[in-house]
Amino acid sequence: MQLRHLRYFVALSREKHFGRAAEVCNVTQSTLSAAVRQLETEMGAPLIERDKRFKGFTAEGKVLLDWATRVVAEREVLDQQIGLLRGELSGELTLGVVPSALPTIGLLTTPFAHRHPNVTLQILSRTSNDIQRMLDEFVIDVGITYLDSEPLHGVTTVPLYAEHYILLTPERGPFRDRTTVTWREAAETPLCLLTPDMQNRRILNGVFASVGCAPRVQAETNSVLTLCSHIRTAGWSSVLPYNLLWLFGTPLGMLALPLTEPEPRFTMGMAVRRQNPIPPLVEAFAKSVKAIDLEAEIKPRNG
Fold first, then answer.
1. What are the boundaries of each domain within the chain?
2. pLDDT tens digits, residue range 143-195?
3. Radius of gyration of the chain (CA)
4. Calpha distance 246→300 (Å, rounded)
5. What is the model's pTM?
6. Fold of the domain built from segment(s) 3-81
């Protein structure tokens, strides 16, 4: 059983399409298909449910996939450890980041990249549920996600900062003379929010519900950039994590008002798979992150 065939098999599970999996692996589709057939011959069982296109894995295929995923991941760890013996840290480190943490992710990745220039960083915007799944399936190495809102499993965590919220609203709107806004008041103004599949939105819904109201949602999006665009052009308001202001500042013509009654805090942090040995890239990134006081880095820009 060849390692590259296992890599093709794992890629097929992630892409769920022969053509895309072949492209990711830099081989032809016929080469990838032949590798899968060879695995089926070696296992003595069909591994793929086929029609005219990929439909999924058989029971035997799922067993092999679980094993192959771990073998491929362990080989990557081995390569990293051999590199360390030569005095170099290299490879690819993949991060899954919830959208509300993206504005400040550069504060974590930049020091690491400067310290380890031979490491390539891949940063993916994903929901918290996706991050948990991708950690479980060895698709990502590190997750930046909420630690205390919905349970995580099989991971080691490092708290980074406490997320709290502001209302970004037109300066000529109903809150023009205010310095703070209550959650009940915010619920009555037209809002643009992240979609319900985002944990940030589920958190906001929970806070609104805790004061006996529901938000008046004018538009929903799974993109922080799209959200900011609509706030600026449509005259709507939005409830946003305060760390967004660190990157963008308060947009022209808008007010950033702290939300009160209540003033909830939710912990954003780093999550990595609980495994032994710890991959050298993950260990190095964790060491770099622990040396950064992200809370202090963000606060000055927010006043």
1. 3-81, 91-160+269-302, 165-260
2. 999 998 788 999 999 999 999 999 999 988 899 999 999 999 999 999 999 99
3. 23
4. 8
5. 0.80
6. Arc Repressor Mutant, subunit A (1.10.10)
